[in-house]
Design the sequence.
């Protein structure tokens, strides 16, 4: 559980694991996935997430800034994160089974 003022619950309860030196997070209550961790585990920069969001204007994303570095970045609903990973994270497909099945 990570405390934050950026969430109405006051904290984000997560399932987490390390992948390629980056923390992969999945909110255990609302299902949002920390896409920044997955994107960085692929070797991409955080800045290029902006391009992905611009190319997919219908994405419902939540940005977390401030507080614990681990939870900062772009969070999105499970289905959106899964769809983006199917297109962009083939190299991590076996590593992400614990999140997406």
Sequence:
């Amino acid at each position: 559980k990570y405390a934050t003022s950026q969430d109405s619950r006051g904290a984000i309860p997560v399932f987490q694991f390390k992948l390629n030196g980056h923390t992969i997070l999945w909110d255990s209550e609302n299902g949002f996935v920390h896409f920044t961790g997955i994107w960085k585990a692929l070797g991409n920069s955080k800045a290029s997430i902006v391009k992905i969001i611009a190319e997919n204007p219908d994405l419902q994303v939540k940005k977390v800034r401030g507080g614990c570095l681990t939870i900062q970045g772009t969070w999105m609903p499970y289905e959106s994160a899964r769809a983006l990973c199917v297109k962009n994270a083939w190299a991590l497909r076996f590593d992400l089974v614990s999140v997406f099945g």
